[in-house]
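User: My collaborator sent over this chain with a note saying "see what the structure looks like." That's all I know about it. Can you take a look?
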Amino acid sequence: QVQPVESGGGSVQAGGSLKLSCVVSRWIFSSLSMAWFRQVSGKEREGVAAINRDGSTYYTESVKDRFTISRGNAGDTLYLQMNSLNPQDTAMYYCAAAAYDISPHIRPTDFEYWGRGTQVTVSS
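Assistant: Without extra context I'll predict from the sequence alone. Here is the result:
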């Protein structure tokens, strides 16, 4: 059963940091490609960062050098470290998983399994 569960969202001032977590069953975690998406009400879901099964990582341009996606050593948790946050990062953040290698374009249609999201709010 693949059911991502996100946590770690919250409110922070511009320039601050947050770390999101996403837990998936450890028995299959290493066989999944994982990603973080975000969505603002009324807008399309945007791919933020992804990590392939071989460990290669991809980022959307607006978060490069600020966000880092990683897999935890415990073997069941995906992280998104977000630094230098700005109000444009405010969104609902979703964790997603795919049972195959994914492209660098981080497209929502490439992912089969989705969490329910965690809200990130950045104030100026």
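A starting point for your reply to your collaborator: Residues 77 and 111 are 17 Å apart (CA to CA).
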